[in-house]
Write a structure and sequence with these properties.
This protein has 384 residues and is of the alpha/beta class. The protein has 12 helices and 14 strands. The strands form 4 sheets. The chain has a 7-stranded mixed β-sheet, with helices on both faces. Strands 7-6-12 form a 3-stranded antiparallel β-sheet, with no helix packed on it. Strands 10-11 form a two-stranded antiparallel ribbon.
Length: 384
């Protein structure tokens, strides 16, 4: 790509606005030597819990661990099953496997790209410990329908909210919509750290206490020298928590910026042969972690974008059930048709805070020209 290439994400643009405050945080933390389990971690946990509308937050090392520890705290383990989707980053399924539970994969709703609640009834069984809906691309899953399927069986619902920081459903934030909510603070997330990080939020004091113990060597409350269980070292670093405290107050504004950019994409792309992201339901506010269109001929279009200096992404090209490392689950091609079709067609366009409207217009202009050059049989939007 040329020097004026447009990236899919640009993590450097915010630095000019936060440089002074961030350097002051580095200086303060380094001068105090407060790197682990410090006051900033406790303060961030309180602030993020309040943001999500939950009673508790436990900061952990990354989003994968957040899911694993939340699942363990809610009863997932050897001999149990946990239901989720294959159209997600592999970490969702890794976390299930790490508990010793068996991942059970169901198809997605092709309109929303989230878990299809109508598929849950057939998948729920006597060994089901939890269901993990993924709020994919910043859009909340259909939590009412998911709870309606799970509640009669006493099955926990653990939200994978790694792409949905601040999204709303029925006036409530993601993370507060299930037994526990799990977040990643990977740098490209809507609330991103300067490194890996994650959190579990919940209203259940017992779940929070168990996650807190598991992240710190299985230690007992109030006595780090007593270990009630086998745990690990999975704490969120105090420095990263302090930096996240700088970014949390501007998260809603940055999410609003993402929505405005997404609206501009929608307006500019409305007449092109692309399937646009699903519109929000009336009681929903998405946060557009990604702006993902669909079309046949995705790879040819992506190559033309690259030639024109516009980066793009594919989230995700190979569903988990077709990945070589997950063949032992016993799934094959055709088992999850909506998931597999979506994976062949999705294309992520540049979208991040600091992206300028003129740059959105540039992407749309390149897209329009590239689509005109593609063979007609690869330009189906399939809007049905």
């Amino acid at each position: 790509m040329s020097a004026d290439a447009l990236p899919l994400f640009d993590l450097t643009r915010r630095w000019s606005t936060e440089r002074e405050a961030a350097l002051a945080v580095f200086e303060r933390i380094a001068a105090a030597g407060a790197f682990s389990l410090g006051e900033d971690l406790a303060a961030f946990e309180a602030e993020f819990a309040a943001f999500c509308g939950t009673a508790h937050c436990v900061g952990v090392a990354n989003g994968t661990v957040a899911l694993e520890l939340a699942l363990r705290a809610c009863g997932a383990g050897p001999g149990s099953e946990v239901i989720t989707v294959a159209h997600t980053f592999v970490a969702t399924v890794e976390a299930i496997a790490a508990t010793g539970a068996t991942p059970v994969l169901v198809d997605i709703d092709p309109a929303t790209r989230c878990i299809d609640p109508t598929k849950l009834a057939a998948a729920l069984g006597p060994n089901t410990a939890a269901v993990v809906p993924v709020h994919l691309y910043g859009r909340p899953a259909d939590m009412d329908a998911i709870h309606a399927a799970c509640a009669p069986h006493g099955v926990a619902v653990i939200e994978d909210a790694a792409q949905a920081h601040g999204a709303l459903l029925g006036g409530r934030r993601t993370g507060s919509l299930g037994s526990a909510g799990c977040f990643s603070f990977y740098p490209t997330k809507n609330l991103g750290a300067m490194g890996d990080g994650g959190a579990v939020v919940t209203d259940d004091a017992d779940v929070a206490a168990l996650v807190r113990s598991l992240r710190h060597h299985g230690s007992a409350p109030g006595d780090a020298n007593i270990h009630d269980r086998v745990g690990r070292t999975e704490r969120l670093d105090n420095l990263l928590a302090a930096l996240l405290r700088l970014r949390l107050p501007v998260l809603d504004a940055e999410n609003a910026e993402r929505r405005a950019l997404a609206a501009r994409y929608r307006e500019r792309l409305a007449d092109l042969p692309l399937t646009l992201p699903p519109a929000d339901a009336p009681d929903m506010t998405s946060v557009h972690h990604l702006f993902v269109v669909e079309l046949d001929g995705r790879d040819a279009l992506r190559a033309r974008l690259h030639q024109a200096g516009v980066a793009s992404g594919v989230h995700y090209p190979t569903p988990v059930h077709l990945q070589p490392g997950w063949r032992h689950l016993g799934y094959g091609p055709g088992d999850l048709p909506a998931c597999e079709r979506t994976a062949r067609r999705v294309l992520s366009l540049p979208l991040f805070p600091g992206l300028r409207p003129a740059e959105v217009d540039r992407v749309c202009g390149v897209l329009e020209g590239a689509l005109e050059l593609l063979p007609s049989d690869t330009r189906r939007a399939d809007r049905a």
